[in-house]
Every structure is written in structure tokens, then in C-alpha cells.
Input
Amino acid sequence: MNIRLGIVFAAGLAMLPCTVYGQALSPEQKVKVDAKARQLAAWGSDPAIVSAVKAFNSAPPAETQGMTQERWASLTLLDPVVRALSKNQLATYLKSKKDDSISEIFVSGAGGTKVAFLSKTTSWSHKGKAKHDLPMAGKTWVGPLDVDESSGALQVQVAFPVVDGGKPIGSIVIGLKASAL
Output
């Protein structure tokens, strides 16, 4: 009897993220996300972020050349490539800007590949996904309330263009903790 109850409980827990996956924001949460997004959108023209993305676009690091989604998925958190992107000057700067409402931050170059992040992302490139493609078209993107694969946090992601001279040159994605909404 106890084993059966344990199995039912475990199955229920396993399904919990599925009930949250892709959930629409409540009207109150949407107001809070929109207000925070307006505040964070300025990061897309922050000189430190723009400079790092420009440098990356003109000369991507040699160690990231030929990186694929499959190779990225196989890298550990301690891999030198991953550590370089989470410890570079832009990553350090992003850490200084993070507040308690933010669960993750990552910046991508024009091609959708990572320039810097707070922690390893699930995907190496977000090209072909709305969170990168809409900012590259000059638009803001707001995702659904979701459990993030890389951070495990219940969050909503917002994405903005990184802009130089009025033109998008990359994207920045910021995860906002659901608990802060």
C-alpha cells in the first residue's frame, strides 16, 4: 500500500512542471512583467553590453568556432568554453546588474550564439527561436510562464534587442522569477 502511494505521489510530482509549462501569465503578472520589461529594455543600449556584442560579432572566440547544439549539450559546467562565457567581462558585468527578481541572463550575438551568461544555457544558439529572432527584428519578446530547463526556476523570459546605431546586433534574454511577479 505504501509503495503504491509513493508511486502515485512521485508520478504527481513528475507531472507538476507539465501543468506549469507554457502557462499564460495572469493579468496581474502581465502588468508586473511589462513594467519590469520596460525597465530592463535599456540594457539593450547599455555601452558595456553593446561593446561586448560588437566585439563578439566581429571576432567570435576561437574556442567557440564550430560549436553545435549537440557539442554544447555535452559540455559540463566546468568545461573551459562554458567557464569562459560565464566568467568573461560581460558576464561579470551582468552579475553586477542582476537583482533578486532575475533568475537568468544571457546575451547572444547576431547569429544567436552566446556572448555571455550567468549560467550555462540549454541551447548554444537561439537563432530560429522567437526569443532571438524577434529582438533581431527590433522587437521585445515575452515568453510564457515556464520551468526553465537550465535553471530549474519557474520564470518568464523577456528578450530585447542589443542595439548599436539604431540597428539590432544581438539579443539579451532575462528570466524573471515567478515568485517576484
Observations:
- The radius of gyration is 18 Å.
- Residues 2-20 form the longest helix (19 residues).
- DSSP finds seven helices and six strands in the chain.
- The chain has one domain: 23-180.
